[in-house]
Amino acid sequence: MANSFNIKINIDTILTNPSAISDLMSELERLGLSGSTEVDGLSGAFNQLGNSIKAALASLTAYMSFEGLKSITSNIIQTGANFEQTMLKVRASSKATNEQYERLVATANRLGAETEFSGSQAAQGFEYLAMAGFNVEKMIKALPGTMALATAGTVDLGTAADITTGVLTGMGLEVEQLGRVNDVLVKTFSSSTQNLADLGEAFSYLGPVAVAYGYDIETVAVLLGDLANAGIKGSMAGTALRSAFGDVHKVFAAFGESAVDAEGKAKNLFDAIELMVAKGVGPEQVTKIFGERAGPAVFAFMDMFKKDADIFNKQLDDMYKNAAGSTARMAETIRSGIQVVFDELTGALESLQLESFFKDNDSLKEGIRGITDAVRGGAGVFKNYAKDLLSATKVALEFIKTLVSLSVSLTESGAVSGAFNAALVLLAATIAKKLIFGLVNLGKTLVAQGVLAKAAAQQAAA
């Protein structure tokens, strides 16, 4: 009668701990089969398989250690190089001297460490300020306020810089008025149905025209806020208001009224609105005077005036009295959230990278050279990994072949039961699936990532 097979083998344990095969060998010895050529071949094949796997994993570990060092160094270099490239653009645009350039770099890095913006983002902010014509001193002074605007408006720093410099320039204001501009923008979008981008776009269409007709930034902002609440915003609001400013004189001409007041000053849009409401002008006549583009906006203002003749005075009074500090208050509220705290951590970590790139440049170069020398010296390790990987796969195939041969031999001799043979075949199939295919797939992945190509290149260069 054939002997019974009474052993349970965990394939994962065998693959990670080759000594586990001793259980199988002990069972074969108990069955009186240990002296056969096939069984002895199985033991030798498994030991060779285990050694091959260990060799492949050891060389892979060595390679990944170098990869980790390279990754850290690459991050520092890439971050620093990108930052440096942006700052050099700033230098070129602003015509900064060496001393001024160093101040700009130090300021960007410091703000990156102290705020929710990284040094790289600060550099981008400087880039927009430089393109707007700001000199070095004005850029350094303007950037913190621009950062606060970006936070309050929940936009990136480059967008905030683009908007605030555009409004500042368009309204004919000096950089010293940047805080005023930011506060007016924040108060306006926070009290109307528009965002900072909408408001910035509207200003871009009418700034210089508004100044030419005598309107200050507060007045324009109030009117744009009213239009946004009436569903007219962005470029539509900007072009409508620009057109309305230019057609105010037509209102007085239509009713035979003087376009200047008793003091000889030109009457404005508010005077025209008051006159048209008093005359009972309807939508058709408004459109005839102001056109299809500005007509709906002007009629919206008239509707507000009908409900409260003092509405615009109240709004302007509120803007003049309460706009100051709006940016700081909103930014402070937003900065209390966890996202900003995380952003601050990210910025601080990048500042450490920039510190290494600029101040410890020589040390960084020496470190890179050291890693390079180590890689060159260990090129054989990388080459061995490719060889060990292929060797382990080949040995695994031989191991499966030996296991199957044992099963066939035992079946022909009738020494063991069919269940035992079935277990051997199952063992062979399982190892084939978990080991051979695993090794092959790992090899494909590494080849796809260029690991083996890198190893070959390094070996060739050595």
Beta fraction:
under 5%
Mean pLDDT: 76
DSSP strand count: 0
What is the ordering of alpha helices and beta strands? HHHHHHHHHHHHHHHHHHHH
- Alpha-carbon distance between the termini? 64 Å
Q: What integer value in Å does the Rg equal?
A: 39 Å
- Unreliable sequence segments: 1-20, 445-449
Structural class: mainly alpha
SS summary, helix count? 20
- Helicity, in percent? over 70%
Shape, principal axes of CA atoms: elongated
Largest sheet: none
How would you describe this structure to a colleague?
- This protein is mostly helical.
- Among the domains are: 11-63 and 363-461, no CATH class; 179-334, no CATH class.
- It has 20 helices and no strands.
- The longest helix has 58 residues, at 37-94.
- The model is unreliable at 1-20 and 445-449 (pLDDT under 50).
Quick structural summary:
With 462 residues, this protein is mainly alpha-helical.
Present the secondary structure layout.
Blueprint: H1 11-16, H2 21-30, H3 37-94, H4 98-114, H5 119-131, H6 136-152, H7 157-170, H8 178-190, H9 196-212, H10 217-229, H11 234-254, H12 269-278, H13 283-307, H14 311-322, H15 326-334, H16 338-358, H17 361-377, H18 379-413, H19 418-448, H20 451-461
Helix pairs in contact: 3-5, 3-16, 3-17, 3-18, 4-5, 4-16, 5-6, 5-7, 6-7, 6-8, 6-15, 7-8, 7-9, 8-10, 8-15, 9-10, 9-11, 10-11, 11-12, 11-13, 12-13, 18-19, 18-20
